[in-house]
Structure formats: C-alpha cells, structure tokens
Amino acid sequence: MRLGTAMLNGHPTLVAAMEDGLVALRSPALPETLLGVLQAGEAALVECARLLVLAAQPGSPRLGPARIMAPFLPGKILGVGRNYADHAKEVGGPKLTAPRIFLKPSSSVVGPGAAVRIPPAVTKPDWEAELGVVIGRPAWQVPEGRALDHVAGYTVLNDVSAREFQFDQPLAMTSSAKGLDGFCPMGPWLVTADEVGEPWDLEVTCHLNGEEVQRGNTHDLIFSVPALIAYLSRYMELQPGDVIATGTPAGSGHFRTPPRYLKSGDQLRLEVARIGILEHSIA
C-alpha cells in the first residue's frame, strides 16, 4: 500500500495512491490520520487494505487533484551520519564503530512540492537524499534478527543541512545543522513494508535542476536498517510513527570541488527505488 495525506476541502485526509488515482480511506474502524493508523497497530493497516480492495472494484470513485502533504508528522526523526562508505570517505574522519546519531525535530518536516525557506543567515545549505524507515510497532531492546518486524514501511526524505553548523564551528552542531524549519522534506507516501520487500538493494538518487548529483544503493549502508533499529532500541523505545533517516550517498554539495550549495529557485528530485519520487524547491 501507498498511504499518505492529502488536503481536501481544507482538511488533511488519509488517502492511498492507486495506479489510476487517489482514494480517500474513510471507515468508522479507521483513525482519521496516518499517524493514528500507525499508532493503532496492525488492525488499522488491515482495514486500510480492506478499503483498497473495495476501491479496486469497477466504478469506485477516485479523488480529483489534491495537494499532497507529508504523509504524517513523526514523533521523532533519528538521523544517521556518514552511513554510506563513499559518503564517509568524502567527509573524512575516523572509521565509525557505531552509528552516528542526530535528531531532527518534527517542525523540520514539510511535504512534496514545498518551497523550503533557507534562513538568510544560512550560507551553506546542502542536500542529502535518504531512505526513511517508518516504525510501526514499539521497539525496545530488539535483536537485529527481529528488527524488520517493527517496520511499517518506508518513505523518501531530504536531510537538508546547514553545513556551517557542522564544519565551521569549534564543535560540530549536527542537530542544529539539520533541524531548521523545513529542513526535512518527506514523502510523498509511506509505502508499506510488504510492498517494498527487503530494504537491502534500493537505489537512491538525487537530481538538482535536472542534473544527477547523487546515486547510491542501500546495499552500501555501513549499518543496515535492522542494525540501526537494534542499536537505537538499546537506548530508547522507538514508537509507531518514528522515522529513521538512514544516511545519504556521496555527492552532497559541500564535498564537491568547488563546494556547491542550494540557492533560491533550485529544484530537487529525490528518488528511492520501489518507494517513490519526492520533489521540492528552494524558496
């Protein structure tokens, strides 16, 4: 299933994307929001699937044009730094023996088509295409072999970063660099884990103004999706609707020669295979 949120008549509405259009998911047994569906557990996802079976019948209505929002507002977004070998090499520093974790607040989330506003004081805004892992069941002290049982699905996100907070300070302020308003475009869909399959071989790309600037594959992750869930759940309980931003491949602007940063009018197209395409601009 491809689940998301659309603005219909001024009201955020739970929707699903089908091959021939969007359908609204409404049922007395179903929460009104996608976050509510995730928090309600497996029964709510089963109800979504039932409604989609009904929607596939001939003559079932489809929604007209609608503004697609971020799929939901996460409880917490846990980012992972330097988690692709090629990106770790271009950044430099010692070899990581454990995941490098930072936090992005929910206030950083915007949806597809957003025009991300860069604060005038930020001079080195950068892009990072990433696979987002959406937690579907509480995860506490989860062994790696059972970690994927706690995944509801996956999404696409851009871990926008103000590099001066990371590299121009005596001590790096990574969460500040990545936590500004609008610095987490996300969506357009949560694609359920059963549709994606195993997350071992998903190509990740980013195009800036039509030019390919990043291409990688999740088989190059230093710490895999199950390893990340197992590691994080040692220290905090992951909750339904939490998102893990798994890291970005090489090709971000700061590490190019010369460096290249985002500017007003830029158009970004980020894609993760089997999950979707996220497009947004820079205001």
Can you walk me through this structure?
The chain is α+β, with helices and mostly antiparallel strands. It is built from seven helices and 18 strands. The strands form three sheets. Strands 1, 2, 3, 4, 5, 6, 7, 10, 11, 13 and 16 form an eleven-stranded mixed sheet that branches. A five-stranded mixed sheet has the order 8-18-17-14-15, with no helix packed on it. Strands 9-12 form a two-stranded antiparallel sheet. A hairpin with a 3-residue loop joins strand 17 and strand 18. The radius of gyration is 18 Å and the shape is globular. The model has no long low-confidence stretch (mean pLDDT 96).
Indicate the topology.
Elements: E1 2-8, E2 11-18, E3 21-24, H1 34-40, H2 42-55, E4 67-68, E5 77-81, H3 85-91, E6 100-104, E7 109-110, E8 115-116, E9 125-126, E10 129-135, E11 151-158, E12 161-162, H4 163-167, H5 174-178, E13 184-192, H6 193-196, E14 203-208, E15 211-217, H7 225-233, E16 243-245, E17 267-272, E18 276-282
Parallel strand pairs: 5-16, 7-13, 8-18
Antiparallel strand pairs: 1-2, 1-4, 1-13, 2-3, 5-6, 9-12, 10-11, 10-16, 11-13, 14-15, 14-17, 17-18
